[in-house]
Write a structure and sequence with these properties.
Blueprint lengths: L4 H20 L2 H10 L9 E2 L2 E2 L2 E2 L4 H8 L3 E3 L8 E6 L6 E6 L2 E7 L2 H4 L1
């Protein structure tokens, strides 16, 4: 039976896309990425949704695992629900803003990454 393209696209967008998103953001997928991806280093590339293997929306624990480096809380003087973290070693000029337990923004001042 043939289905019109419009119906196929609606089903994909409404049903399959959310399922794929959940599968790719699961702890198992993050662990798989950890094995396959490059760690967070001075040569990591910045993107609109993250840097290297670290993505906006991850928890600090998830980000530390995929980055291969512990992220430590910085003194930021902000609200308790909005904190800053930085890599403990190996990478300077990258700060992770965490809102309500998840990375919400990544500040990159390292010229090697921003070039």
């Amino acid at each position: 039976m043939k289905y019109p393209l419009k119906i196929v696209l609606v089903v994909f967008t409404a049903v399959l896309l959310p399922i794929l998103h959940n599968l790719t953001s699961s702890p198992q997928m993050i662990a798989l990425e950890n094995k396959q991806s490059v760690r967070l280093t001075q040569t990591s590339k910045g993107f609109t949704n993250g840097i290297g293997p670290v993505k906006v929306g991850m928890t600090i624990g998830e980000a530390s695992r995929v980055a291969g480096v512990k992220l430590s809380q910085k003194s930021s003087g902000g609200e308790p629900s909005c904190l800053y973290y930085e890599p403990q070693a190996g990478l300077s000029g990258v700060d992770f803003m965490v809102t309500d337990g998840r990375i919400s923004r990544i500040d990159i001042t390292n010229p090697q990454i921003t070039k």
